[in-house]
Amino acid sequence: MSTMRKFIILIAALLLAAFGIGLQIQAAIGLAPFDAFNQSVAYASGLRVGDIVSIAQVLFVGLQVLILKKDATWKLFLQVFVGALLGQAINLVLFTVLSGLVVEGYFMRLVLLIIGSFWSPFFIGMIMVLDLVTMPVESFAMVVSRKTNKIFGQIRQYIDIVFLVLAVIITLISNESFTIREGTIVSALSFGPLLNIYMPIIEKYFIKWNIIDSTE
To answer: What is the pTM of this model?
Structure first.
């Protein structure tokens, strides 16, 4: 399949992943570490959360450029497009698509959280299987992993811990609602395992439909 068609699928997957993130934000009972950080900054600053996501993603691309210097390739800058698009897609979902959604009661909030937690990893997995571009935070973790000879998963976990600590600090300083709750635990425990389930299935059908080449 042509690269252009893969990019169309990539954009569609980003938009659909943003919908799942929007559902989790609407549930308002806790978010994954990175999303919790972004929402906390949004509460404190008054900016829209999608704008914070876009800024944060671009900053992570900048950090990679600083670390890699002349080894940075043009593909790295595709992450700017992907990160910015994800943030604006989240704004579209929250402030247009879901703007009229009224969630009453804890049970309905829990349902939204679970749907979003199962939904987003599928489309993030689709992006990963396409292998056109890596999301900025994950790519930053990979760069640090290579430079320090540390395990990628360990570095990514450290980054999540930093996000959690920052989210708590920002919340305490701004006296806004906590974004770290039970939903954070749900996201933390489900995201990785769901990716492991989804990605082989997505890869199988992408190969079948000639979207990607067989890895065999």
So the answer is: 0.90
153 three-state secondary structure: helix
CB 129 within 8 A of CB 203: yes
pLDDT in tens, the chain (216 residues): 578 889 999 999 999 999 999 999 999 999 999 999 999 999 999 999 999 999 999 999 999 999 999 888 887 888 999 999 999 999 999 999 999 888 889 999 999 999 999 999 999 999 989 988 888 998 999 999 999 999 988 898 899 999 999 999 999 999 998 999 999 999 888 988 998 899 999 999 999 998 998 765
Given a contact cutoff of 8 angstroms between Cβ atoms, the answer to whether 17 and 169 are in contact is no
The residue extents of the domains of the chain are 3-208
Angstrom CA distances, 199 to 97, 135, 179, stand at: 27, 16, 28
SS3 for 157? helix
Q: What is the total residue count of the chain?
A: 216
Q: Evaluate whether 142 touches 75 at the Cβ level (below 8 Å).
A: no
